[in-house]
Amino acid sequence: MTDLPMIRLASVDSTQAFLRRHPELGFCAVLADRQTEGRGRQGNRWESAAGAGLWLSAALPPLPGVAPGVVMQRAMTAAARVLDPEGRVLGLKWPNDLVAWKDGRLRKLGGILGEQVGGRLILGLGVNLTAAPEIPGRAIPPGCLGDLGLDIPPVPDLALHISKFWKNLEEDLQPVFRWPGEGDPLRWEDGQGTCLGWEPDGRLKVATATGVRRLSAGEVTGVGGQV
């Protein structure tokens, strides 16, 4: 796999917004030491302090025939392979969060965004490497890679390796583990049920009191459970 051209910025509002503003850059990756307006799913703010994490976006060719939810899951699984090359601790929380178990509790280490703008698929990744923000009241609290005993290579090396994987998302990448798994109880902002499995199109199949539902990433937020 060849490298994407990589732009490194000391500070930016967000790497995702930077690529949206600059379609003339074509297919490339952007790494920031610090983001001032990092965003997660559903517009949530993502803390992006200098030196604390990996803040990376890449503009890639679209993947026709692959469901958007699956693209996000493969992209986050690719990041997990780079961050945890021995496949020891990092997994995927539906729909596309990077998570790990610590002290018997699931922790969220990273998130990913994806959007198609013109003829480009723009992926944006944020991962807590050496520190995690304090966010009270979260069913799945933040964590960082440094708390898991994993080696943390230089951030530019991580960014280059992840962007290489992202150029080949046609491959059906599978995570070390998925949460929720079949039989796990879960809840979201307007419902609850039991996981029946992850669908091939990236949706989550859930048994509820009123029947089987298939949840999509854009339909629900705040999926949690007895974790």
From TrEMBL:
Family matches, as Gene3D superfamilies: Bira Bifunctional Protein, Domain 2
Sequence ranges assigned to domain BPL/LPL catalytic in this UniProt record: 1-173
InterPro entries: aa-tRNA-synth_II/BPL/LPL (IPR045864), BPL_LPL_catalytic (IPR004143)
The organism's place on the tree of life at top rank: Bacteria
PROSITE patterns recorded: BPL_LPL_CATALYTIC
Stated name of the protein: BPL/LPL catalytic domain-containing protein
Source organism: Geothrix rubra
